Every structure is written in C-alpha cells, then in structure tokens.
Amino acid sequence: MRSLLRGRLLGRFVLVVGVACVSGCSDSANGGSEGGGPVCDPPQFEVTVDAENVIPAPDGYTDLGGGVREIHRGVYMVPGFSNTFLVTTEEGSVVIDTSISLTAAAHEQALRPYVVEPLRYIILTHAHADHVGGVALWRGDDPGVEVLAQREQVDFLHYERRFDGVFRYRNSAQFSRLLNLPPLPFNAPDAPVVNDGGQPPATILFEEFFEFRLGDLTFQVVHTPGETPDHASVWIPELRMAFPGDNYYISFPNLYTLRGTEPRKALEYIASLDEVTSWKPAVVAPSHGDPVYGEAHARDRLTAYRDAISYVHDETVRGINAGIDIFTLMQEITLPPALQSPDTNEVYGRIDWSVRGIYDGYIGWFDGNVSNVTATPPTAIYADLVEMAGGADAVAERASELSDAGDHARALHMTDVALAAEPANTIALEARAASLEALLDVAENSNMQGWLFAALREVEAKLAEQ
Ligand SMILES: [Zn+2]
Known about the structure:
Blueprint: E1 2-9, E2 12-19, E3 25-26, E4 39-40, E5 62-65, E6 68-72, E7 75-78, E8 84-89, E9 92-98, H1 101-111, E10 119-123, H2 129-132, H3 135-139, E11 146-150, H4 153-162, H5 164-174, E12 204-206, E13 209-214, E14 217-223, E15 232-236, E16 241-243, H6 266-278, E17 283-284, E18 292-293, H7 295-321, H8 326-332, H9 351-363, H10 382-389, H11 392-404, H12 408-421, H13 426-442, H14 446-464
Parallel strand pairs: 2-12, 9-10, 10-11, 11-12, 16-17
Antiparallel strand pairs: 1-2, 3-4, 5-6, 6-7, 7-8, 8-9, 13-14, 14-15, 15-16, 17-18
Helix pairs in contact: 6-7, 7-9, 8-9, 10-12, 11-12, 11-13, 12-13, 13-14
Bound molecules: zinc ion.
Zinc ion binds next to helix 2.
C-alpha cells in the first residue's frame, strides 16, 4: 500500500511518495529485551524479477561515436568522471544521473540527438555533485520533466550546504589533480550557520519505492542507501538492467571519504547490493565505469564486491571488540586473496580509510586513551620535544633522513613536529616536499593523489616565499 501526500518544501511544491509500513513498529512479545527489540515490518514494495516481455540483453555496448555508447536497446550512455544515461521508449525518454557541472553540458549535447521526445523523468541516484550537475540543462523550463529522488535527498543537501565552507575547500583539494582544480584558500566563513539551505532539484520525492511505466518499459526505483543516505537504484525488468548508482564501481568503495562525510554504513551497502543482486540483472550499469554484462557475471561481481565490504566490516568490528587500536587495525586489515579482484582495488576507496570510517562511525572519536580526553592535543608538547632534540633544524634533518630512506609517513610526521616549532623551517619544508612528491609518484588512489598534490602545492608556495 502506498500513501500519497503533498508537502511544501522550500517554497516549492513537491510530490512526496511514500510506502506505508503495514502495521508500523511494535514491541515484541518479550518486551524488547534479550534480543527482542521493537519489530517493524520491512518496507512493502514489489520489484519485478521475472518480467513478461524480456528484451534480450546484448553482450556489450556499441560505440556510436561522439562519446555516446548504446549499452542496451535504446539505452545510451556518455562515460565520464561520472556517467549520464538516457533510456528511450516510443512514448518518451528518461535520464538517469546527469554528471558533474564541468562535463554535464557536453554529456547533454552528445545525448540530446538520441532523445525520444518528450523527456519525462530525470532520475537521480543520489545528490552528490557529480550526479546532479546537469539537471537544469536537461530540464530547461519544461515543467513536464519530473525530477525523481529519494526523500533523504532533502536532509542530505541541507547537510552539504551546512558545511559548504569546509566542503568547498576539501573538494578542491581532493579533486585537484583529477579535475585540475585551482587551489582554494581556506576561508573561515564569517556568516551565520545555515542549517537548511540545500536546494533539492527533485520535483518528486519517494520513500522506499517508486514505479512508473513509459512505453514498453517499467522503471522501478528503490531506496538503496550506501554511498549516501538518499541513494537509489533503478531497475528496468524488461531490459533486465540495473543502475546501482555509486553503490558499485570498479574500486573498493569510499566507505570514508577524506573530504568529509557522515558515516557511510557498511551494512547498508551490503543490504543494498543484496537488493540489486536479487533482481538478477543481465546488465549492471554503474554511474562510474563501464557496464557489466551477463547475469552470472553480474551476480558474481556484485557478490564479490559485497563480500569484500562485509569482510572489512566484520574484521573491524572484531578488532574494536578486541580492544585493538585504530592504527593497528588500519595496518592489519587487508582482503584475503579470495576477495581480491579488479572491483576491489583501491583506486578510489581505500580499505585502511574505510576501517577508520567504520571504527569512528560505530564508536566515535575516543580511542580509550585518557590522555586524549582533554582539549590539549599531543601537538602541545611538540615545541618542548624540538627544544630537547636540539632545535627545529635537528628535527628537520631527521625528517630528511627518513624521507631519503623512503619512510615517508614518518618523515611527514617529523616535519609536523619541526614546523610546529618553526613554521618556515626550510629543511623541514624541503623534506616535506620530497616525501609528498615521492608518495605522489607511486600513489594509485585518485583521492590520495588529490590530497598529496594539494599539500605539495601548499609547501611549494611556502618555499617560494623564502
Ligand atoms: Zn559519483
């Protein structure tokens, strides 16, 4: 049963489509103790696994030129930093994700000739900037184009807007190399806190499930939290085609992103991947990277991905319960060979960052060491240590030795100590630059490359002032 209600949001009317929980939540018979807990019926919706009129899936995509690929019958994709998809039927078209603003116009222009008018829906798998950048371009002034998103998109965009000051700077650092972004100064905003300033582009918000039919295709959009709380996946049963958004791509997922995020819950990723796998897709088209073809192949890839997340989650939980410190867990938790695959390489997400994200997401900032419960940080004793070591130059020389020996992580820490005592110490800055360059040379993770590149630019700017 679905309930419909109209809600007013930010001065605009949006249609909020929800799913009624049939009997709601209630206490269990044993009063909710000893594992009894409140019981809530799962969301009620029906995903079509066996469609009546199945259109055979191809073995791969056809390159149409101009950056456009036909990835299934009447389904087009422009690959990019993030992909844009166009699904056509004889009664109109649907866009799934719209890429980032830097590339959205090129994607829209490349795909526009393939649109079967009218364009009816833009489905957003989630509200990250690399998926919503082209909504206005596609929609124009046409009120007939509905923009569909999961209801959590509203709070998620408020959250992103609330922290615009820090995210603006951190995004430019993280993607500095990948997108060739200019450095941004870190300005502390002298402005009031804006708690609800997000501007959701959606005209329809749904709770757990939204379905519509266009031409000979059924579009089923399911809330699948993971990468973000508002994340949704799209299923077209007649094409046996799933669009899992960012919950699956060819890298271990970014369970924690260095630009800052609320916890991305591993168990939600797992449940969402299980949901998509249960549809038995013959084509899986993620919003980053190439589509995967073949039902068995897609099932195996999604399952391996999900199992890798599950392993890292469970090992982290095991370590937390064993009282093992976070840095040891970051060093020791790696995927066993059976779970290593091209899908779980670490070119985007990293396992050690994910371990820390899971740790912090579950039990928060306190590491169990009572020295860390006050507002006095370990750095407060750096100046004393530098003096005892014979001055900033002596510490900086040690940083240079570590850097020369290839021990770059410790070299960077050592430069932190020297620079805390003497911020313009040339030896320390040069050692820092050398280690950052060396790490950048071998870094395969694109987020790590961005932060190393941004840090290197910062150090080089300080050296240039001397
Ligand atoms: Zn993305």
